[in-house]
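Q: What would this chain look like folded?
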Amino acid sequence: MKILLHICCAPCAIYPLKILRSNGCDIYGLFYNPNIHPYLEYQKRLETLKTYAGQENFSLQCPDDYPIENFLRGILGEKGDRCAYCYYTRLKYAAGFAKRGGLKVFTTTLLYSKYQKHELIKTIGQKLAAEYELSFFYHDFREGWEIGRDIFRKDGGMYRQPYCGCIFSEKERFYKKNG
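A: My prediction, written as C-alpha cells:
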C-alpha cells in the first residue's frame, strides 16, 4: 500500500515509519508545517528530516514556500482551539497533496507525540479523508514513544526540538512570568 505520511519532524517519524513499513506500506513523506516558528527552527527540522529520509530511503516532498503569514493570520482569527486550527491546516494540505498525487491513504506523525491532542487529530484526519475521498490510516503510534526515543538517542546527531513549533507553544515552554 502506498501511503502519504505527513511528518512534523524526523524524531517523530522514527516509530511510525517502522510500523508502516512492517505493514508493507510504501512511504511518501510530506513536510508541511507552516506553524513552525522561527524560520531557523523550521530549517533545522527540515534539514534533519531530509537527512533522515535519505538514510531511511523514502521519498520526501517539501513545499518551496514558508506560509507563516497565512498561518498566523488564520490562527489569530481562530476563536476556538488553536491546536485544532493547526492540525486542520496541515492535514488538509496533506489530504489535498495525497489526492493530487494519486495516493489513496494518508496519515501523520502527529499521532506519535504524547503531547498532541490525539483524538482531535484522529477526528480531523477522518473528516478530511471523507471530504477528499481518501482513507485516513489511524494508528496510535504513542505506543512506541520509548522505542522511537531510544532509536533517536542512539543516532546522536539528529536534531530534536523542545516545543511543537508554534510561537504560542514556544512561549508556554520558555516564558515564565515574573512575580
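The beta strands are 2-6, 26-30, 59-61, 105-108, 135-136.
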